[in-house]
Records
---
Amino acid sequence: MMHGALHKYLHWGAIASLATLIVWCVLWEMLIAPLHPGGSWVALKAAPLLIPLYGVIKRDVYTLQWSSMVILLYFTEGVVRGYSDTNRVSAMMAWGEAAIVCLYFICAVLYLRPYKKAAKRMAKELLDKVNKVSIKK
């Protein structure tokens, strides 16, 4: 496994971008450019992002895998609202959301890369053992 400085930075990048996205969404929908004056229930969209936060902090490979897929929903929202929102500030916040999601996605996928390579190598070794046993029979 890669346990060098880059691996550590990718982990911290995933944590920081996920935490930033949570704060970003709440600030966007409550203070900076809410859909309704005084804040909006849309701020609750940040709540599901709390679910993977602990697993990401703990370096849970499975959590990093599924969260890197689920977070793409936030990318989609950012792009759609970035293009369609008539409030310029809200549109800029949407593009910011999409950018933060990209940062998380890149950090998570690159962090997971050595684990995926190791899993492929182990699967190949197991398959080779199985094939050797079946050839002997």
Note: Residues 22 and 49 are 6 Å apart (CA to CA).
---
Amino acid sequence: MCPVSSSRLLLAITIIASVVLGFLGVLYLLVAGLKQMYFWVGVILIGVALVLVTVVYKSLVKPPPITVYWSPSGEVKLEELKCPSCGAPLKIENPSISRVVCQYCGRAVEIVEEPKW
């Protein structure tokens, strides 16, 4: 017997509950000519069933993962960045930042990658 994860079991129970509630809601709406209360019970049951179906749908639909590959066109060389004011080496701890402050003189240096043609 293969093990079933708790999330799949909860998903199956939610689907079954939404089908049963929707079916009961339709039955109550069919009998709604007898009493007005049956109409509102049917509407509420169908509403709960639709909410459950929406929750199940949102849990099943996941966006595909995005993978980005980078391949440089030429040889990659490590280049040391220096402060234009005092000449000290600049430490770049996060490659996504565009501005670095020199730890020696305090000058803010903007990092701009220019094409080499």
Note: The two ends are 64 Å apart (CA to CA).
